[in-house]
Write a structure and sequence with these properties.
Elements lengths: L1 H14 L2 E5 L10 E2 L2 E2 L2 E10 L2 E10 L6 E8 L2 E3 L2 E3 L4 E9 L7 E7 L1
Antiparallel strand pairs: 1-10, 2-4, 3-4, 4-5, 5-9, 6-7, 6-8, 6-10
Length: 114
């Protein structure tokens, strides 16, 4: 079992730092509210829009004592943000505002990372 865990950890590190992801890959439209929960992390965010701007506001929380961090990735019009919380019980709030000329909203994901 230890060998399998080590192999999975190595594959995860080689392929990137993401271990678990929740939420869709397509952009969520304005007005979307999400409350995703995965093993080791939880979050809340709301996507709102005005004119040519998109705002993603909420929080991310690490819920497990391990060597990983809870991270929310926010992608809008070629801009990326990665608010994250590290340490069991740690909660980080965020309020990201970006230009959204095409009016697509934002791609937002909850992840666990090393």
């Amino acid at each position: 079992m230890r060998v399998i865990r080590a192999a999975l950890a190595a594959i995860t590190l080689i392929g990137g730092t993401v271990l678990v992801t929740a939420t869709p890959a397509n952009a969520d439209p304005c007005g979307t509210i999400r409350n995703p929960v995965i093993d080791g992390a939880r979050a809340h965010w709301k996507i709102s829009c005005t004119h040519n701007n998109v705002r993603v506001a909420g929080w991310v929380e690490d819920t497990r004592r391990d060597a990983m961090c809870a991270r929310v990735t926010i992608e809008t019009d070629n801009k990326h943000d990665w608010p994250q919380a590290c340490g069991k019980g740690k909660r980080v709030t965020f309020d990201k505002r970006r230009v959204d000329i095409e009016g697509k909203g934002a791609i937002v994901k909850l992840q666990l990372v090393y």
